[in-house]
Amino acid sequence: FNRKYLKDELERRRKNKKGQELYKKRELKKSKRGDASGDTDSDQDQATGIDEVDDLADFAASTLGRKENLSKFMEADPENDSDAGNSTDSEDMAALLQEDEDDDDGSDDDADLSSGETGETDEDEDEEDVFKKELEAMKEKDPDFFKYMQQNDPASLKILEQNDEDSDEADSDAEMEADESGDDVASGAEVTVKMLNQWEREIKKDHSIKALKKLLLAFYAASHMDSERNEQSDAPYRIQGMSIFNKTVSTTIRAAPHAFAHHAPVVNGKVQVKGKVRVVQALLKSYMASLLELLRQMSDAAMIQYLIKECERVVVYFRSFARYTRELVKELLRQFGSASADDGVRISSLLALRQLAVGATGDVVDMALKGMYLTYVRHSSVKNMASLTTIQLMRNCGVELYGCDGGASYQHAFVYIRQLAIHLRNSMQLRSKESFRAIYNWQFVNSLAFWTEVLATYCGDRADDQPDLCATLESLVYPLVQIIMGVARLVPTAKYFPLRIHCIGLLLRLSSATGIYVPVLPLAIEILESPEFLGRRPVKSTLKPLPLDAHLKAPKEYEHTRVYLESVLESVFGILADTVAAQSVRIAFPEWVVPATLQLRRWRKRVGKSWTRFSKQLQGLLEKIDQSARLVQQNRTKLDFSPSNLTAANQFMSTTEPNSTPVGTYAASLRKVRAQQRALLLEAEAAE
Question: What's the pTM value of the predicted model, to 2 decimals?
């Protein structure tokens, strides 16, 4: 479709538009004089023709002056993606039946497949069809202008003649295909094991296009056996029985990639088509459409993983077609977020998405990244301890995907972290129950956890492996820390101690991984100095211990109870030990820990008698802190540089692991106890 030719054509039409208007005025005068009885209808037809010229001009102007939409993040959402212009699976099957082995080379689709990228072939074909329809409408409704174009510019109407020739060739090709296929492709022919074995032999031995076409038609019938549209009745083959279904699927998945590797080999990441481009393109489309349809209908986890791995094998062909790339991303995200999916399906979906995103265009990467994050957020509501494991796996999968493209990852992280900051600002300004609910929910907290894990991974754990990505994302650490601290202090009441403990854990994870100091201790000590521990006596209760990991706020029956406050103290002491252990190899550790130890000793002296067990636990923590401080002081006596040498100061005790210090060993033992308690809770939920 030559856009320059269309532009010139429209310029000529604009010049002749004035003549058309004069012609219309003359015809109106004739109708007034009553020269002809049908003049009124003729005038209406001619006016319609002029309006259609204007419509065509608007269409061409929108095509030639197309601008990039700035709201690409909204368009990339797979939930909002529109496939209005895409053909259906039945149209793909019709195209497969009509394409013949003897089609001519030189198709425009050659550039699409040879580029190895998501092309615009489907879009160009749609624009060409619209242009043809506009010309045909002009021929019917404005015959005088069409006759004028034939006399003065016949070259502009060659596209209609070409369309007629293509239709004749397609009809002849369809007849030839029907003659060559014989009885095997009779309407509704039943597929047998003998037919499948014969097709597979011909494909592997002779690379037969004809056999591959028959096999893909049978695969289409198999993939639509349980389709709601019941499209199998229109297919040339029928699948009877599960044994034939399994044989058809396994044979196609074995033979089709082998055939495509011969007819459309991948060279340096790009698809290079040998021979008939239109035929190979139709075969690829049919295979991908049937594979996706089969994946949508499967419910068995093992079969879903098998099909996802097959999609991963041919992902380079998916990249060559924008429509199937979008559908594959949407289907992988659906499988990833399915409530019935197991861990294997989610991991397989992640691997396929990652391979699809690596080397793909920016739109595909944006769609995959945004879809992964939104899928995670939609399914991040915590219902019990078991759901925490699933959410953690989904979060880790999302973090892995965000490491494939640094630029796109930064854009998405910036946008979504900014959205979280805006929600927090609105809540702090309004100070209403509704605004607090917008912040104090699992979706918001798990969103913070997602971006915390992304920054902690690529700016800390893997900073040496991906230094460019670390440098790109590091600027987002500070705003994320400010948001988390604002959420922790939004409602500083005892009811929301679990939420504050979650926020402190996120800050501790970010600080420990990146090495950036975050003042975590004040947030934890504020909990100990609340009126719940210093001012009032707790209410005795026979309730079970409350698992704070699965709660953001205390249930009403747990408020002010001793069992609830004991759970809070266990979590706070674990946080204190982890925080101090992370700083236990710093050169300034003995001085840094002094204010915290003074406050903890004061708290133990005031309320130690009411909380005897925790008073003893706190005494043990203080002793380990003193031992770690003496260890740092002993190492400092051996130094020969001044405090102004920051480079050497940062390398102090760099070979010593924090977990090997006295307080680090104590914190590790507390983490082990918490892990055992969490495992017992999971077993209890599974038993129930």
Answer: 0.75
